[in-house]
Amino acid sequence: MVSEGSLNVVEELLLLAISEDGRLPSDDKVFGYVLVAGVLMELSLARRIDTDLDRLMVLNLAPLDDRMLDTVLVELARTGREQSGDVRFWLEWLSGYGENIREEALEKLVDKGMVERREKRLFGIFRSRRYSVIDLGARAAVRKKVIRGLKSGDIPDPRVSLLICLADACRLLGDLLDGEEELVGLGDRLELIRRLELIGLVTARAVDDIRGSLSVSIQSRRR
Questions:
Q1: Which run of H or E residues covers position 108?
Q2: How far apart are CA 35 and CA 79, in angstroms?
Q3: Span 166-194, mean pLDDT?
Q4: Quick one: pLDDT at residue 82?
Q5: Which of 12-16, 40-44, 128-132, 153-157 is least confident?
Q6: What is the pLDDT of residue 221?
Q7: Which has the closest alpha carbon to 175: 220, 152, 143?
Q8: pLDDT tens digits along 34-53
Q9: Are 30 and 210 in contact (CB under 8 A)?
Q10: pTM of the full predicted structure?
Q11: C-alpha angle with apex 133: 132 to 134, nearest 5 degrees?
Q12: 14-34 pLDDT, tens per residue?
């Protein structure tokens, strides 16, 4: 089996996000934004981009030998000559990549023997695809890393901090802990972790804003 340490932050998030019945978070649009954020975080960790509260900057165009990371990096550089914006701007600009990021990361997990893909047809017409985590040790290691990062008084590794921010953005932390009550009790610690890495903080705020905007839009259509 492939070691958990060889995974990128998007792959680690997917190991946590796949449910027992093989489903991913039902809010596909918000989850897509979170996956795009994961790619931006990987590019930040690789020192290909940097961010502040107002803008995102491309620092280095050297390829990373990862098709999705390199695709997004080239897109950032190409459009960055004509566009400028904060992380929320780029999450929305790149949101169309969310499905591709998800499918490519899942395919990597399948190739690494960590996840199994199952397909079936309903009524012989509609195809249904589910995924199962078969490397339970890898998922347990990722989960342990997140919980330790949340509960320890130590400063987490930047990658752990960013993974916690992503898991929080798609509301997975309550499932990893003993429910929402424990998560509420860790609120101050979570806010501290958000602030450790600027891209984690601005991503968390951006996803919260996007989720709120989508909720308002849905309610308006129902009236």
A1: helix 98-111
A2: 20
A3: 88
A4: 57
A5: 128-132
A6: 47
A7: 143
A8: 999 999 999 999 999 988 87
A9: yes
A10: 0.86
A11: 105
A12: 999 998 877 887 666 788 889
CA distances from 216 to 81, 95, 112 (A): 33, 19, 40
Angle at CA 166, nearest 5°, toward 162 and 169?
A: 135
Quote the pLDDT of residue 125. Answer: 64
Classify residue 179 as exposed, middle or buried by CB count within 10 Å of its CB (0-12, 13-18, 19+).
exposed
- Pair of tokens at residue 220: 């308006």
Radius of gyration, alpha carbons of the chain? 18
List the one residue out of 1, 29, 35, 4 whose CA is nearest residue 17. Answer: 35
Per-residue confidence band for 214, with pLDDT thresholds at 50, 70 and 90: low
Asked if residues 100 and 68 have their Cβ atoms less than 8 Å apart, the reply is: yes
Q: Which of 33, 22, 131 is nearest to 91 (CA)?
A: 33
Residue 197 to residue 222: CA distance in whole angstroms: 38
Pairing outcome for strands 115-122 and 126-133 = antiparallel
Sign, CA torsion 143/212/101/163: negative
In this structure, the number of other CB atoms found within 10 A of the CB of residue 222 comes to: 6
Note whether 49 and 43 are within 8 A (CB): yes
Asked if residues 86 and 201 have their Cβ atoms less than 8 Å apart, the reply is: no
- The HSE-up count of residue 114 (CA atoms within 13 Å, CB side) is 24
Distance CA 137, CA 135 (A): 5
Average pLDDT over residues 112-132: 78
Structure tokens at 210: 């996007």
